[in-house]
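Bench log, entry 3. Co-assembly request; chain sequences pasted below exactly as received.
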Amino acid sequence: QQQVKQSPQSLIVQKGGIPIINCAYENTAFDYFPWYQQFPGKGPALLIAIRPDVSEKKEGRFTISFNKSAKQFSLHIMDSQPGDSATYFCAASGGGFKTIFGAGTRLFVKA
Amino acid sequence: NAGVMQNPRHLVRRRGQEARLRCSPMKGHSHVYWYRQLPEEGLKFMVYLQKENIIDESGMPKERFSAEFPKEGPSILRIQQVVRGDSAAYFCASSPQGLVYNSPLHFGNGTRLTVT
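Structure output for the full assembly:
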């Protein structure tokens, strides 16, 4: 019940493409859904986060879409660039539960 | 550097030795979390500490692993009698508030432990 399932495991897109990463959760007590970006040799860094009272949030080229009834949320990267190549983790927390991470998606953006 | 500081960055230990990983949280943060990351895998929660208290250690193996966050000084993750399966990247994160407030986590750059 505390799992967060993330897909795909890896993703390759052309520069300018729109990669989409999907996550699903089960615990309805979760009420905070952050995405983290991790470059090789570095720790994860918060990219963008959403709470379930909104269905979409945009910050620059990054958009989170949230479907509360389906218990799913996704990350879209508009106009992707080679510098976006990294591993992306979705996560969930709330209701006193610690932050649980998805397994990660390795994104490669071809120049 | 006001970020989360972890040291050492790389640690090599022989089987049976002890590994000590240190984490200094961001200034003003009193909540520390330890996560373990295996190659090609996600981050697995190990332990959540506040100053002088272990709040949640449900993800930490009961044997050989221990953690502390003293009143003064960094948080320490200690692994006794290391085995090859302990080889991983260990990340520390901190937050200004605890779980109730859903504060985002600020991560250090990790300690990469290799057991030979």
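Chain B has a mean pLDDT of 92. Chain B touches chain A at residues 4, 6, 33, 35, 41-45, 48, 56, 91, 93, 99-100, 102, 104-110 (CB under 8 Å).
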